[in-house]
């Protein structure tokens, strides 16, 4: 008998929950706070820059493999300006088709069959698929909810214990989707020390670097011994609200960038030509852009977090990203479907016209995520207020 068409390493990755929930939102006319994309486009001048590039014939043909020089220079200037990190635009930067391709290419480049990858669970859904495609074995370290502190915590002992002789790399994400946790200086220092001690690479997904409301974002590459072993990933999708442009980047030591490029060139080779020129201009926007963007999102976070708390959820108020994780159990067994996030999310559009996603999809240990549900607040204030109004009916 013939094997099923899908490669068995990908068999567990069927249709994503986002597709199911977005379809449910469309069918029921519910407000979609499931998927994390802004409902307002990024700055007008950046859109104009893309139009100019298209009209002027910049990027309409294959751009250079590593990315257009203007964007590579802008990425380096950004890392220098915000974090004091110096990178060589010719040897230490690679432009990718969004952060997703950067993650996939980095995993394909660094992993061999059986290599173990430690990732912080719950994790962004492409990590598990990327590790599987590269033949690696994922080793989740679970971030635990601390209800009293209202945040998720990394247990550093658990992380240390997860490292074995087969561990090749740690796949980190801070600010963290979906929990909204921003790893602290102490946590990052401990991770850096562990990586150096055990001679591990780190791929660090920092796409929400400018969406930090409490505390600060500290790139892992700034810690002693880390610059040469860290692959840092950024994305214009999150920083400038152009998720459809798919422009991302990698910064790392030359040997690592060369390795990632070796894999990347056979995925897409290159992409997003004219958008690369526009993102180069975006990265040079004054600090005021970044501050205003963050402050606007902080207000939205507060409106949705307060609304969810008033509706009866236990709220993990995020320090960063544009997601709020909630615990549905305080809503009671009937509404929360006995704390089953899947059943709750499937019933929420009918019940009150809002779509969210169950955090269990981001876990290997699904039971750990069962009663948690994620809402996105990268939406217009009026949309969030409307959603909050609808969610009120849960409390009634
Ligand atoms: C943690 C994380 N990494 C990467 C991505 C994808 O970024 P891009 O759209 O640039 O591929 C997302 C998108 O939601 C994300 O949440």
TrEMBL record:
For this UniProt record, give its keywords in alphabetical order, as a comma-separated list: Amino-acid biosynthesis, Aminotransferase, Cytoplasm, Pyridoxal phosphate, Transferase
Any one Gene Ontology MF annotation carried by this entry is: succinyldiaminopimelate transaminase activity
**Which Pfam families does the entry link to?**
Aminotran_1_2
Superkingdom per UniProt: Bacteria
Required co-factor? pyridoxal 5'-phosphate
Catalytically driven reaction(s): N-succinyl-(2S,6S)-2,6-diaminopimelate + 2-oxoglutarate = (S)-2-succinylamino-6-oxoheptanedioate + L-glutamate
All copies of domain Aminotransferase class I/classII large, residue ranges: 30-391
Q: Where in the cell is it found?
A: Cytoplasm
Q: Name one GO biological process term.
A: amino acid biosynthetic process
Give the transmembrane region(s): none
rRNA-binding listed as a keyword: no
Q: What is its EC number?
A: 2.6.1.17
| GO cellular component terms, A-Z | cytoplasm
Q: In which pathway is this protein known to take part? A: Amino-acid biosynthesis; L-lysine biosynthesis via DAP pathway; LL-2,6-diaminopimelate from (S)-tetrahydrodipicolinate (succinylase route): step 2/3
Record function comment: Involved in the lysine biosynthetic pathways. It catalyzes the transfer of an amino group from L-glutamate to N-succinyl-2-l-amino-6-oxoheptanedioate (N-succinyl-2-l-amino-6-ketopimelate) in a PLP-dependent reaction, yielding as products N-succinyl-l-2,6-diaminoheptanedioate (N-succinyl-diaminopimelate) and 2-oxoglutarate.
Q: Which NCBIfam families does its entry note? A: PRK07777.1 (NF005855)
The subunit structure is: Homodimer.
Q: Which family does it belong to?
A: Belongs to the class-III pyridoxal-phosphate-dependent aminotransferase family.
Protein name per UniProt: Probable N-succinyldiaminopimelate aminotransferase DapC
Q: What is the lineage of its organism?
A: Bacteria, Bacillati, Actinomycetota, Actinomycetes, Kitasatosporales
């Amino acid at each position: 008998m013939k094997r099923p068409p899908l490669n068995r390493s990908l068999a567990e990755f069927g249709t994503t929950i986002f597709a199911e929930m977005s379809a449910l939102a469309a069918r029921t006319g519910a407000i979609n706070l499931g998927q994390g994309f802004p409902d307002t486009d990024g700055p007008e001048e950046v859109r104009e820059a893309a139009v100019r590039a298209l009209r002027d014939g910049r990027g309409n043909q294959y751009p250079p493999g590593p990315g257009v020089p203007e964007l590579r220079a802008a990425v380096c200037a950004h890392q220098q300006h915000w974090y004091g990190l110096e990178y060589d635009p010719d040897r230490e930067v690679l432009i990718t088709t969004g952060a997703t391709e950067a993650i996939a290419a980095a995993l394909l480049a660094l992993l061999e069959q059986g290599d173990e990858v430690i990732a912080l669970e719950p994790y962004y859904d492409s990590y598990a698929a990327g590790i599987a495609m590269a033949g690696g074995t994922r080793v989740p370290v679970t971030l635990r909810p601390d209800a009293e502190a209202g945040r998720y915590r990394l247990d550093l002992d658990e992380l240390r214990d997860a490292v074995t002789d087969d561990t090749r790399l740690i796949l980190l994400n801070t600010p963290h989707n979906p929990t909204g946790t921003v790893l602290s200086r102490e946590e990052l220092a401990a991770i850096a020390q562990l990586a150096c001690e055990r001679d591990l690479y780190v791929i660090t997904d920092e796409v929400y670097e400018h969406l930090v409301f409490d505390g600060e974002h500290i790139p892992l590459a700034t810690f002693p011994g880390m610059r040469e072993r860290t692959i840092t990933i950024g994305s214009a999708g999150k920083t400038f609200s152009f998720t459809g442009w798919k422009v991302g980047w990698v910064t790392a030591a030359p040997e690592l960038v060369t390795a990632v490029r070796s894999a990347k060139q056979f995925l897409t080779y290159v992409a997003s030509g004219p958008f690369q020129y526009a993102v180069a201009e975006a990265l040079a926007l004054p600090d005021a852009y970044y501050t205003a963007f963050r402050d606007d999102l902080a207000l939205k976070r507060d409106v949705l977090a307060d609304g969810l708390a008033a509706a009866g959820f236990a709220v993990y108020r995020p320090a960063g990203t544009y997601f709020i994780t909630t615990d549905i159990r305080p809503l009671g067994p009937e509404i929360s479907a006995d704390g089953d996030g899947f059943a709750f999310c499937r019933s929420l559009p009918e019940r009150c016209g809002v779509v969210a996603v169950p955090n269990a999809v981001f876990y290997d240990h699904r039971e750990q995520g069962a009663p948690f549900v994620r809402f996105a607040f990268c939406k217009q204030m009026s949309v969030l207020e409307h959603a909050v109004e609808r969610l009120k009916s849960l409390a009634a």
